[in-house]
Each structure stands twice: as C-alpha cells, then as structure tokens.
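Q: What changes when iron/sulfur cluster is included in the input?
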Amino acid sequence: MIPLSTSTLKTESWQRQLADAFNRVEDLLAYLELSDRLEPSMKVASRSFGFRVTRFFASLMEKGNPDDPLLRQVLPMAAELEDTPGFSTDPLEDQAAHQGNGLLRKYHGRALLITTGACAINCRYCFRRHFSYTEHLASPTRWHSLLRQLRNDVDISEVILSGGDPLSLGNSRLGALIEQLQLIPHLKRLRIHSRLPVVLPQRLDHGLAEILDGCRLPASLVLHINHPGEISTELVQALMPLRRQGVILLNQAVLLRGVNDSAEIQIRLAEDLFQAGVLPYYLHQLDRVRGAAHFAVEDERATTLHQAMQTRLPGYLLPRLVREIPGARSKLALPLSQNE
Ligand code: SF4
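A: The predicted holo structure follows.
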C-alpha cells in the first residue's frame, strides 16, 4: 500500500489517529510487551511491504501473546520472503482487468474503482500487496475520463469503491466522487469495500453518514473482519447510524491459517457479526499472492470447516466459501468440482 502522507492528513480526529499509527514493527512489539520476539527478518519483510497498524487495532490485541490472531495478520514474518510456486505478484490478474483510469471490470454489471492505494493497516496476506497503484489509480486528475467511461457503459449498474481502502479518503473527496457517480442514470447501486472502520471506528463519522444518506444510490458497506476479536464495542456503536439509515452491512473474511481456521472461530464470527447488524457474505480462500503462502488453508480442509459451520448456523449466517479464479465470470464456490 502507498503510505498516507502527512500532507494529506487533515484535522479530523480519525485522520490524526491514522497519522499516529505504528509504522515500525519494534514499536508495536514493545507496546505488546513482546520486544523479545523481534527478529531481523521482520524488518526485512516490512521493507518489501510496509508495516502499518493503527493504535486502536493494536489495543484489541492481547498483550504478551505472540499468537494473538489479530497480531498474526499484521506481523511481518520471515516466511514472506520465501518464493512459493503458484504464488504470484498479481494473483487475480487485476492488471489485465484494468480498463484505464483505475477502473477494473471483472464481473457482469459491476465496475470496481481503485480510489486510493492507502490503507490504515497493512494486512500481510493482502492480495494487492504488490499492486502498482500509481499506474492503476482512479485519482482526481483522472475522474473526468473515468466518469466518461462509466457514462458510456450502460451495462454497469453497480460501482464498487475499492483500493487500498476507499475510506482512507477524506469526506470531501469521497463526497465529490459519489456526487458525480449518482448523476449517471444507469447506475443503480453503490458499494464500498473497507477494513478501515474495523481498525479505526471513528472513521464512520457524521459526515460519511450524511454523504451516504444524501446519495440516490442505495449503498452497501462490505466490511473486512476476519476474527470475532475485531468486533469492538466502538465498531458496533459506529455502525449504528448507518444501520438506522438503511445502509446494507455485509462482511467478507479471508480464511487464514493460524488466525481463524477453525469452525468454532468462524461460527462465533458469524454470530457476533449478526449482533453487530452485519451479515456474513463471503469467506474467501486466500488469493495466492507472493509472500502470503504461510496463511493458506488447503481447499479440502476449508470445505470440511465450512460444512461444520453449515450444521451449526442458520442459512442466513453462513457465508459463501469461495475462491476467486482470474478470468472466471464469478467467484467460485468450494468445493470447486461443484462448479463444473
Ligand atoms: S487487505 Fe484491505 S486493508 Fe488490508 S492491506 Fe489489503 S487493501 Fe489494505
């Protein structure tokens, strides 16, 4: 991800907190009373993909626990430096799906906009950890031609704001983009994919709620929560205004070895999400990005885990277990044989 430059940081408190995030692995480990766990390879790994963790997300971790599931998602590891066959820098072939101006087309009716390369937290398994944002960014200087592209393609009914994390944009920039999007008559829905509220709930501020409330396009917010320990009281409270105004709240998680690869954790996640007013949407098999092979769970084990969830959860709380295959016309449900 592209680090947020301090020059773009405004005075809003969530932006001050972004500026105050941990950006050195040794500082996070010291905060967690785990300084003795620091290894030189962690610093090497964080040179190839930057280290970034908000203090709020760190506050949800258990001090003194090197196996904390939230810590494992953000801690650079020597394993990231290994080159594993089948793991590439562009696992979903995003670059091939790029149609210019930061617009990606993969599935019928939907257009995904890479609105920013910045994130509040750098997840070590991120499938865009090697993505070249500067060349594939829907930056304001490209909005004019981007909006023309969208206007000219009447097959697009839904726009997905992605990144990076689209909520790392300030409200004025986000509002200006959404204002333009809603003027395109054939657009019917707006979707925002974001992990930012999880790691910094204050981002769900009044200004954002107003933007979505004033938008003619029905909106959904797809959160990225992998573990029940990420559902904080602060997050639940911050989601409340959006729930009240009818924003559809969904979650997509990634199945990660050593983090959430048990039926018990996944069942708890689904139940806690519902309590927070969020429906489990997808449980993704890891995208095979270089540097993240140590997080992979075999398809067979993932399927068994999902079947165990199915026996314990009502259908509306069971996320779809899927894998994204480049070039496929939709995400594919596991086991993959059922798609043949
Ligand atoms: S998974 Fe999402 S929040 Fe995490 S680094 Fe990637 S884009 Fe950013």
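Observations recorded in class: Residues 5-11 have pLDDT under 50 and may be disordered.
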